[in-house]
């Protein structure tokens, strides 16, 4: 486990490696050099059906050295941090540059664009836990899932995991930054079986510090309840219905929105939301914020892969799209300012002015009244056209109450129509990756089921 004293030593080593790379690069004829270094220590402890699984520990090192030679950018990677290996990687990058084409958009950040304030965002909280205690937590999650209902008699496993690392970025133009970080998690995947039907569901919690994690008992219980609720799914008649998508599932839609307004698709003209800046893409009651600097945030960072800081902002303000997610290259291509989103999406949260604290999932079901609750979606959308078609499972709801599980159906629409037709956002918020949201109540969607 990397502790703070080791992080200090590691940062000193990384600074020395960067200085060596800059010296080697200057001698070899590179105009500019940028180096990204990361060391990560990971461990996992698991259990399955009351028995311990093999525990895993690993240490990973990665270095990416990029050079600019006469307007040509090239990179080479290595997992060896010795001076000879760094020199070989830099020489390899310079050799690659000899055969490349000049692309001025690919230059590193200007010195004035680099992050000037590398903030401490309280992201480093190592987890000192003995193996027997970690195993006991995994077993507790399993036991909690099995206690939900007799039809859950086994699991695909429960696990604890932890990652501790230092991410480092430096440029010969004068920037140098280091981010110590941790990420810990617990998960459980129970199996529900009834009348020959079998359904696996799961639940997980991941945070920067152990204190933020959901308890092992809660993770197991929620996973068990989700498996129980999915067993014995039936089809429903093909038709047009109101739809409620639960919070964990709807984070995927936030991800598709983010990708549709991100640099790579926008500069290629391959997004259904291209050229919509300043237009209403959600209803007026909806706003979407991004905060790179949230303390202990799962997706917080003082700067991105280009060394540029993000900003606290409303990407969507009262329904209107106010900003894109732009890395440096895409911003230059679009003749816009970078937003500090190079390889990084920060803590995004969707909020509705109509949401009340009492808007739990049960209240959202009441608002749905009669329609389809979706708890799982498979597939992806066509972000060029916005076409949305997914295989889903969930539950049929009548008069605000769940009647029976649903499986073997598809839903179809267009993402632009879904976003603009967002009726309500629940207060039943969850966070998955960089996205935080409650459940979404949507206007009518086409559902393909039984004839």
From TrEMBL:
Q: GO terms for CC?
A: cytosol
Matching entries from Pfam families are given as: PmbA_TldD_2nd (PF19290), PmbA_TldD_3rd (PF19289)
User: Which InterPro entries does the protein's record reference?
Assistant: Metalloprtase-TldD/E_C, Metalloprtase-TldD/E_cen_dom, PmbA, TldD/PmbA_N, TldD/PmbA_sf
One Gene Ontology term from the biological process aspect of the record? proteolysis
GO molecular function annotations of the record: metallopeptidase activity
Q: Which residues form the Metalloprotease TldD/E central domain?
A: 125-229
Name the coiled-coil region(s): none
Query: What's this protein's name?
Result: Peptidase C69
Gene for this chain:
pmbA
């Amino acid at each position: 486990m990397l502790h703070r004293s080791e992080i200090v030593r590691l940062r000193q080593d990384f600074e020395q490696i960067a200085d060596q790379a800059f010296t080697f690069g200057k001698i070899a004829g590179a105009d500019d050099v940028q180096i990204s270094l990361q060391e990560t220590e990971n461990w996992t402890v698991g259990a399955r059906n009351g028995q311990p699984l093999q525990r895993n520990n690993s240490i990973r090192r990665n270095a990416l050295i990029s050079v600019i030679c006469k307007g040509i950018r090239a990179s080479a990677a290595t997992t060896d941090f010795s001076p000879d290996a760094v020199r070989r990687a830099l020489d390899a990058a310079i050799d690659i540059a000899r055969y490349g084409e000049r692309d001025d958009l690919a230059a590193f950040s200007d010195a004035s664009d680099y992050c000037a304030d590398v903030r401490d965002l309280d992201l480093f909280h190592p987890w000192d836990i003995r193996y027997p205690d970690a195993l006991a937590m995994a077993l507790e999650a399993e036991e909690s899932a099995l206690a939900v209902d007799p039809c859950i008699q086994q699991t695909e496993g429960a696990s604890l995991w932890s990652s501790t690392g230092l991410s480092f970025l430096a440029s010969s133009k004068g920037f140098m930054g280091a981010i110590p970080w941790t990420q810990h998690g617990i998960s459980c995947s129970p199996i529900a079986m009834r009348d020959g039907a079998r359904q696996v569901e799961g639940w997980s919690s991941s945070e920067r510090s152990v204190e933020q994690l959901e308890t092992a008992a809660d993770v197991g219980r929620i996973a068990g309840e989700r498996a129980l609720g999915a067993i014995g799914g039936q089809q429903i008649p093909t038709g047009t219905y109101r739809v409620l998508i639960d919070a964990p599932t709807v984070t995927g839609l936030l991800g598709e929105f983010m990708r549709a307004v991100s640099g790579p698709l926008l500069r290629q003209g391959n997004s259904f939301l291209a050229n919509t800046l300043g237009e209403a893409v959600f209803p007026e009651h909806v706003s979407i914020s991004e905060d790179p600097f949230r303390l202990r945030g799962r997706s917080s960072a003082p700067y991105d892969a280009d060394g540029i800081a993000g900003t606290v902002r409303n990407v969507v303000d009262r329904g209107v799209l106010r900003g894109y997610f732009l890395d440096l290259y895409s911003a230059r291509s679009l003749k816009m300012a970078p937003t500090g989103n190079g390889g990084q999406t920060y803590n995004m949260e969707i909020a509705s002015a109509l949401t009340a604290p009492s808007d739990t999932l049960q209240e959202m079901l009441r608002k749905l009244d009669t329609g389809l609750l979706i708890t799982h979606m498979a597939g992806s959308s066509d972000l060029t056209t916005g076409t949305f078609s997914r295989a889903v499972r969930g539950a049929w709801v009548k008069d605000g109450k769940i009647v029976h599980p649903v499986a073997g159906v598809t839903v179809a629409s267009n993402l632009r129509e879904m976003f603009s037709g967002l009726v309500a956002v629940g207060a039943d918020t969850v966070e998955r990756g960089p996205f935080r949201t409650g459940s979404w109540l949507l206007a009518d969607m086409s559902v393909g089921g039984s004839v």
